[in-house]
Structure formats: C-alpha cells, structure tokens
Design brief:
alpha+beta, two-stranded antiparallel sheet
C-alpha cells in the first residue's frame, strides 16, 4: 500500500488503520506499507525498513528504531 492514509480525514484515517490492523492479524500473510510518518508505522507495522534513494539504510521494529535513533 502506497501511503493509503495520505489526504484522508482523521475519522477515515482511524477506520482505515483499523481495517489494515484486521488484515494484518492473519499471521500467514505480509503486506508492504509506505509512509513518511513514523507514528503511522508504529501503529501498523511489526518491522520497519528505512530507505534513502531506494537503498535500505536500516531495518528493525519501531521500538528498536525509536530507541536507537529517536530523540524525545
């Protein structure tokens, strides 16, 4: 999914997040979700890949990335 919540109002964004979470409960599947918002990735993703110019820079859980690179 390429930034599915971009341009969506707050109520619809919450509904869409909940729908994505329901799909993700199936442990026999995976999905790719792109976003510019780390808060969105934290809510929806088990693993995060950060890219710069199409190259993988870092991979980890949202918690790992926040503890290593986050400030506040």
């Amino acid at each position: 999914m390429d930034e599915p919540t971009t341009g969506v109002d707050p109520v619809s964004r919450l509904k869409l997040r909940n729908t994505i979470k329901q799909f993700a409960k199936n442990k026999d599947s995976s999905y790719v979700f792109t976003t510019h918002w780390m808060s969105e990735a934290e809510h929806l993703c088990d693993r995060v890949v950060l890219l710069i110019n199409g190259r993988i820079i870092v991979v980890g859980t949202p918690e790992e990335l926040r503890s290593k690179y986050g400030e506040g």
